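Researcher: I'm preparing a figure for a lab meeting and need a structural model of a single chain. I don't have an experimental structure, so a prediction will have to do for now. The sequence is pasted below. Please return the structure as tokens so I can convert it later.
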Amino acid sequence: HQDDAGEFVQVRYGDGEQSIVVATTRAETMMGDGAVAVHPDDPRYKHMVGTEVLLPLVNRMIPIIADAALDMEFGTGCLKVTPAHDLVDYEIGLRHQLPVIDVFNPDGTMSEAAGLFIGEDRFIVRKKMIKALEEAGLLDQLKDYTNQVGVSERTNAVIEPRLSMQWFLKMQEFSKPALDAVLDGEVNLIPNKFVNTYKHWMENVRDWCLSRQLWWGHRIPAFYLGETNEFVVAPTAEEALEKAKSKTGNAQLTLADLRQDEDVLDTWASSWLWPISVFDGLAHPEN
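Model: Understood. Here is the structure written out token by token.
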């Protein structure tokens, strides 16, 4: 993370009948907003929860929701929720079933979904958005603000949270027996005081994102049917072919009709599999 000398923008969402002021350092993401969030205990906005407000420039109605993740003392106490481009906002979006609108292309320019400034660079659009809001009379306040921004350790490029298609491992199937083994005394933790910590980990584990877009590694064993999004998962291509024939009912399929996913396993996933493969302790514990 590095200090970034940016601007704290306070924008008025809504029209004459109902409006609310939202503070942000990333005006270029406004087109992807799914809601405005306030803290459920904030007396200033309790009466507005459950109503809707007009999203500036985009002219789309979005809900005002209550979520305890907010800090009432920060900014105006109102948060623009952009699920596709912020980790906290993504979690809020899941809790409130908000739409996810990806306003960026992979190269950092504005996507078709943004609806405004399509194809232009995100940082140029940030300045253009501020100017457009000011011209529309919706800019409530603008002040200098030093923000902590995540950057690439190799290139210093600003990291942009962005949704993408990935493979996940369902961890519940692994965490439950791992927890039971400790609680039942089959496995002893030393010192014993860490049992509660371990229990907290196992009961709150999330599904593991184990795919990576790298050139080297163990490839994901998923095979697509031609150029479609339909797929089968199997240890080998030959087994995948048999599954594909069964799934489609087409006995004429060949290996040439299958396309293996190009993603590879996360290095942690590879190292996790290595001792299982070498020692084979799960399949043959007596050895």
